[in-house]
Write a structure and sequence with these properties.
Layout (H helix, E strand, L loop, with lengths): L11 E4 L6 E4 L9 H14 L1 E4 L7 H8 L27 E4 L2 E2 L2 E2 L2 E2 L4 E4 L11 E8 L7 E5 H6 L3 H7 L3 E3 L27 E3 L1 E3 L6 E3 L8 E2 L4 H15 L5 E4 L6 E5 L3 E5 L9 E7 L8
Parallel strand pairs: 2-3, 4-7
Antiparallel strand pairs: 1-2, 3-17, 4-19, 5-6, 8-18, 9-17, 9-19, 10-16, 10-18, 11-12, 11-15, 13-14
The chain binds succinic acid (SIN).
The site of succinic acid has 8 residues, from β18.
């Protein structure tokens, strides 16, 4: 590796050794990204699914947004999450805050301090996001780690009979709740997955960059396999979910201040540990727009 700057390919990729994840070492966020460096990051992202940039120091919302834009158009944060201008010097619609901190009685961000179950982001829309960048601004002394699971491996290791069974199946993804599990405006509580309202996606997706097959599960709650009895749908989904979230397919992001990670939402799922609600955790997040889901 050379350290001449981002105008040459000057980064090194250090795989985590687990099922996914790698550190990108040597990137200087204060310098423009050259096409060669960008290409190396994109290649590493396709190969390792989650990239970590450690020791980024203080990254401004603008720097995170500018970096994220290299990987596609950015989604605007949902209106419901409101403006965070009381907290941020720079309030940008491309930036979402994930935090349990409350100022003047109002949460400055989403998700609080509780555990977030395994999920892929926003599969309850027709074009779920391509990926996200998440940067640690403030961290609790323990807890709040984020785990990722490799959905290529989850697919590849299924029994051949299951691969055959799910080859042409689609699943309804519940649009009634947002990523934080809150009921969205205009939706009613559902207690029967057969009544779930939301888009149907194939259970096996073809990744638009790698062309590889991966499992697309999204979110367990109220998921329903079209054309199946409720019993058969539950049986198959329970099996797929417990298979896909086995420790051997996962990697843990144990956060340090200044870490920035980016994940590919098309071929991974993630979950987050809870943490002490009296501690503070503040993360900046951007989301890269996705493309239509294509069945494998
Ligand atoms: C999420 O996007 O599910 C939250 C990740 C985190 O807070 O670490």
């Amino acid at each position: 590796m050379t350290t001449a700057g981002n105008d040459t390919i000057d980064i090194a990729i250090h795989p985590s050794g687990a099922a996914l994840g790698a550190d990108v070492v040597g990137l200087d966020f204060n310098r423009p990204l050259s096409p060669e460096t960008l290409q190396s990051i994109n290649q590493a992202w396709t190969k390792h699914l989650v990239l970590r940039f450690r020791g980024m120091g203080k990254l401004s919302p603008e720097a995170l947004i500018e970096f994220s834009r290299h990987f596609g158009e950015l989604d605007m944060r949902p209106i419901a999450t409101g403006s965070r201008s009381q907290f941020l010097e720079v309030d940008r619609p491309e930036l979402t805050i994930i935090s349990n901190v409350v100022i003047d009685g109002k949460p400055i961000g989403g998700l609080g301090a509780y555990e977030a179950d395994w999920h892929a982001d926003m599969t309850y829309v027709e074009r779920p996001p391509k990926g996200s960048c998440l940067y640690a601004v403030e961290l609790p002394s323990s807890g709040g780690n984020t785990y990722f699971s490799n959905m290529y491996m989850a697919y590849d290791t299924l029994d051949e009979s299951i691969k055959k069974e799910i080859a042409s199946l689609t699943c309804v993804h519940d649009a009634s709740r947002n990523s934080a599990g809150e009921l969205r405006r205009g939706f009613e509580e559902i207690d029967d997955p057969r009544k779930t309202i939301g888009p149907s996606h194939p259970l096996i997706r073809s990744h638009p960059v790698s062309g590889r097959k991966c499992l697309l599960l999204g979110r367990r709650r109220n998921a329903y396999i079209n054309g199946y009895t409720l019993e058969d749908s539950e049986r198959l989904l329970n099996m797929l979910w417990s298979h896909a979230t086995q420790a051997k397919f996962t990697w843990a992001q144990e956060w340090q201040l200044g870490d920035m990670i980016m994940w590919d939402n098309r071929c991974t799922m993630h979950r987050r540990d809870s943490f002490d609600p009296s501690a503070r955790r503040i993360m900046f997040r951007t989301q890269i727009s996705g493309e239509p889901v294509v069945a494998a």
